[in-house]
Specification:
Elements: H1 7-53, H2 59-81
Helix pairs in contact: 1-2
Length: about 90
């Protein structure tokens, strides 16, 4: 009988659709959170490299570490600017 429909079945389908939407939103938010953790690690590495670079007496090593730290800082700033919600 095609005209017969179960009320719990339609409610279950609606709840299933809502659950899928919330799962997608949660997964996307989890990825954004992971990106922020990665950016934080990059920024901590910049601080570490510049800090340890100031202890070397060889200028070439200092400049290399500061240069590498600067590149990582630029990368971190670019990653921060690409995160959602910052332009609002």
């Amino acid at each position: 009988m095609p005209q017969y429909r179960l009320a719990p079945q339609t409610r279950a389908a609606a709840l299933d659709k809502e659950a899928d939407e919330k799962f997608s939103t949660g997964s996307a938010d989890g990825l954004v959170g992971d990106n922020y953790v990665r950016i934080t690690v990059f920024l901590a590495a910049v601080l570490f490299l510049v800090g340890i670079g100031s202890t070397f007496k060889l200028h070439a090593v200092r400049y290399a570490l500061v240069t590498f730290g600067s590149i990582m800082l630029i990368l971190s700033v670019v990653l921060i600017l690409r995160q959602p919600g910052l332009g609002a």
